[in-house]
Amino acid sequence: MSRAPRHESRPATLGEVFASSEYRALYAASALSWVGDFMAKAAVTALVYRQSHSVTASAAAFAISFLPWVVGGPVLAALAERYPHRAVMISCDLVRAGLIALVAIPHMPIWAMLVVLFLAALFNPPFEASRSALLPRILDGDRYVVGLATQQSTGQAAQVVGYLSGAALAAIQPRLALLIDAGTFLFSACLVALWVRARPALLDQAQRTHLLKETAQGFRVVFGTPVLRAIAITVLVAHLFSAPPEGLAAAWATTRDPAHHGLAQGLIMMGVPFGYFIGGLLINRFVPPDTRRKLIRPFAVLIPVTLAPALLNPPTMVVATMAVLCGACVAGLVPASNGLFVQALPRQYRARAFGVMQSGLQITQAGAIMVTGLLANHHSLPRVIGWWSVAGIALVLVVSLRWPAPTEFATAIERTQRANAAAEAAERAVGLPPPATDAARPVNGRHRRTADTTRPRVPGTMEG
User: Fold this and answer.
1) Digit-coded pLDDT (tens) for 379-430
2) How far apart are CA 338 and CA 232, in angstroms?
3) b (16+ CB within 10 A) / e for 229-247
4) Does residue 191 share a domain with residue 45?
5) 441 has which bridge partners?
6) Prediction pTM value
């Protein structure tokens, strides 16, 4: 009989996570790039609107960065399996820096600006997939879960900071925000080049077939493996009900508080990211790993529960509080789901699984916003959100009933870990350099030096 894998009895600390110099480099590179990206989004939206006086063109400039994920994210992410992750990240950063700098050229036509922005966005999936697949090669066990949660919480904070600073710069000099964004890509490339060790590609030449076939294999692994499928569906379904407050904040604020709709919109839009930021730090720092895993399904159910009171048409501050609670529940769901998902994910599918999940999340959230927005054209928006959430409670409960038994998770994890360990041993046999030794874990109240290992107990990722 398969035994459940050993789990840490306490959460990893931030000190243990940041003890890795490679993680510090990835964290700093990601944080700076995120702030720059959100600054650029706010600034380019204003720049396009100023030149075109078209709301449609301005919206297209904002949304174009999501398009590659929707139309070809899994295929673009599959490229990251074929080449060393470090090399892919550096190359994508350098290309994006050059393209974003082009957008800052004065008097560039709107159509050309949109084309260049789209070309830059094409390099987001392979970069993000490579970073996602590299993280579990740097951090092991609960350090991976806490490190991932810290990055995701920082991403939410970067969204708030980037939007605010980008909007402020847009009123003065929007092209400066674009140049800052280009600079963050260059700085990110330098950090990765200097501090992240080179590792071989996970998919060697003998394993390569056709890019579309490799992409399809990623879908089959995610949705053809029972334990991965259960986690993926739970996460995707839960995000159907967390997206509408942020996406419909402008309309909700105008209908609920027309006199102060600007402030109301900002409060509602910031609610979910702020709740995720606070919840991610608290839950993943103070709640033990085993407890976090047990709370995956309860948090999934609580996401629509937090928004069901919209049926009562509450005031703006209550709506914002509901959004904060929703974000905190998402923070309780996603990192823990990642930690469980990655243990059963074969290492050669890391980037492809990320592409599948990221594209699914983009489509799921965009679809939820579109459907609720269309319904709100014919019914009261608070009632639409409220009934949408009530339906979500029922749907998530049904999905939760299909959750695999603990023995199924244990069997899948044990099988995957054996295969991953064999592949990593083969890697070392062909001369992969030994890992650095800059991570420290306490043992019996004292610290011992441990390798900044390339043999994680938690391979792969499903970030989103």
Assistant:
1) 888 999 999 999 999 999 999 988 998 889 888 888 888 887 877 776 666 5
2) 9
3) ebbbbbbbbbbbbbbbbbb
4) yes
5) 448
6) 0.70
